[in-house]
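Good morning C.,

I know you're traveling, so I'll keep this short. The sequence:
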Amino acid sequence: SSGINAEYGGSGPDGVIRAVDIENATPVAPASAPAPTAPAPEHVPVATPPAPAPVVSADGEYVEIPLTGMRKAIAKRLTQSKQEVPHYYLTVEIGLDALMATRSELNSTAPSKLSVTDFLIKACSKALVDVPQVNSQWGDTAIRQYTNADISVAVATDSGLITPIVFGANTKGLKKINGDMASLKEKASAGKLQPHEFQGGTFTISNLGMMGVQEFTAVINPPQSAILAVGAPQKKLVPANNEQGFEVSTVMSVTLSCDHRVVDGAVGAKWLQALKRYLEKPINLLL
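The tokens, ready to paste straight into the viewer:
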């Protein structure tokens, strides 16, 4: 009880502890209870990797951003496309007044709002059925021509460009296409697209019009044979049968990139004529 370590006894006879032993002894601290163990946290946050450190060289200061798997895949496929696929390009202007009026009327009662891209997907799919040579792929021994139009739509994400697919767009109405695109965009933004939802497709649409780009050419997404680049709608003066001889109309420029091994120039032009017909008279999309 005095806190003296008596393991080796005292200095008296037979190890008897004397008063001097008590005076000279070093008190022993009482044993303390073991410290309670903290429960393991339910979730251990993952440390965010540090940002790339700037590098200073004779060429100036820069940072090196590691390549992701997606970025490597994009680089490989597009380099292959430009090296192996003989591209050519066809551009037309398409009037959008009737389409905008139809879209506005449908959106006035529809719970989900249709976009110009929804009309484009449907019009492209109808044109692909009309001109199936564009809905084809080059092979070593044969050209594969598809019956249904599976439309890939380029979507930009934080990790790179991805092309989710609206399968059988030629068999779907505008409302269904709109719902499919909303779901695919949400999955793409969250990185939750399954491989079968973006690998494949028979034709691609790349729309930079919403970013103000008026006209551009796109690189074909192999093994597809064509891709449509869509520019921004613009107000322009166009010829008209009225007293002035002109009127203000909303038009947009689209450019079709074609694989010349599969799609001859006249075939590409014929497909664009069909697309123009559907978009300028959108009532035909409902037939």
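Safe travels,
E.
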